[in-house]
Amino acid sequence: MERKDIPEELKQKFIDLYGCAPDGLFFAPGRVNLIGEHTDYNGGHVFPCALTIGTYAAAKKRDDRKVRFASVNIRSSVTEISLDDGELHLDGSGSLKELGLGANDWTNYPKGVIWAFAEAGELLPSGFDILYFGNIPAGSGLSSSASLEVLTGLVLRELFALNDVKQQDLAVLGQRAENVYVGMNCGIMDQFASAMGREEHAIFLDTNTLEFAYAPLVLSDAKIVITNSKVKHQLASSAYNTRRSECEKALWILQKAAGGAEKIPSLGSLTPHEFEEIRGAIEDPVVKRRAMHAVCENARTIQAVESLKAGDLRTFGELMNASHDSLQYDYEVSCPEIDYLVAEGRRIDGVIGTRITGGGFGGCTVSIVKTDALETFQQVLSSKYMEKYGLAAEFYVVEAGAGAHRLS
Question: Which of 97-101, 165-169, 225-229, 303-307 has the lowest mean pLDDT?
Fold first, then answer.
């Protein structure tokens, strides 16, 4: 579907599937993070922007307790549950993943949002029918799951007039659904960007306090380019949770050495100089590198935003490059394919900065590229990547879009 045609086509597909017109059409975007990777669960800063691609939904209230899910992308039969089903009422004994219940079912994300709303006291008076369509490339690391979660929250709020649920709550409840229900220990960044995005702006977010500010994306004669490596390695989910536990271990050690949690509330509360003075308390070299990335990446993010505000794209690009190097060597969440795209991208005149974006182990790079170098960038990288790995990289020249909203 072309973007401009999606709402009407989705409406018609909803009618074909469910036999009636939807009550409304909705959208929640994906995101790209310009800098600030793996800092969101470490109490640091991030700098993402919402995209103009994302997930769409058509939905209608029902008169009974049934909920029916379907997706244009999946092309499988409708999944039907009841609001009274046991799987929507986990008792705290573990996530679906931990309990071994349908761990690979895409409907766990919207189910998790229904669960999170109920846990927050926002009980649904009846069921609903919903049809999704997403145009975020699969496995790209552009937050299709967060988009789906935030979108489902938006649908619930709008269909059932849950007016106490604010836009920022959509992010918090979406994250809780993924953390507790699905069992993926993600930070808040992806959901926050999807819920709170603004056109032509990025979000400078303090994930420790959720204080944020919009920063205009004024790139003058440059563009943001996302390069999809077309690979996603299977260890991504488990390794992500491992990295988080390693950072938690580092924080615990540093807090103990400093005399209490109030001294160091998060890794993001430390400056690189402060970390250097106390890093010796961490004996495990791997855990030490993980903590060093979290601290230094946070500092890079703060500096990068200041550079952008000052119109200093050169420094912004240098910080992007340093971010990737840290993610490759200290945090070890990159992969050979991504490293190749970054290394070859840096060789091209007009590339201001380039780095991996997202959770890692595949997915995409994000680059700032001079407008007059866009064609060369895509042609050279495409050719070399195909020759090296036999894969056709995809390129998206993107713009910052609006956060989750109702279309009609």
Answer: 97-101
What is the tally of structural domains in the chain? Answer: 1
Name the residue type at position 58: A
Assess whether 169 carries a catalytic annotation: no
Confirm whether 156 is domain-assigned: yes
For residue 329, pLDDT beyond 50 = yes
Q: Evaluate whether 393 touches 230 at the Cβ level (below 8 Å).
A: yes
Amino acid at 370: K
Q: Are 135 and 24 in contact (CB under 8 A)?
A: no
Residue 233 lies in a domain: no
Q: Is residue 194 part of a domain?
A: yes
Range of the domain at 183: 3-30+49-200
104, 107, 112, 118 alpha-carbon torsion, rounded to 10°: -150
Report the CATH number that the domain containing residue 109 is assigned in CATH: 3.30.230.10
State how far the Cα of 28 lies from the Cα of 192, in Å rounded to an integer: 11
The neighbour count for residue 347, using CB atoms within 10 Å, is 10
Task: Choose, from 40, 129, 169, 190, the residue flagged as catalytic.
Answer: 190
Residue-averaged pLDDT of the chain = 93
Torsion sign over Cα 138, 139, 141, 143: positive
Q: What are phi and psi of 405, to 5 degrees?
A: -155, 160
Q: How far apart are CA 119 and CA 170, in angstroms?
A: 14
Please give the pLDDT value at position 100: 46
pLDDT at 99: 47
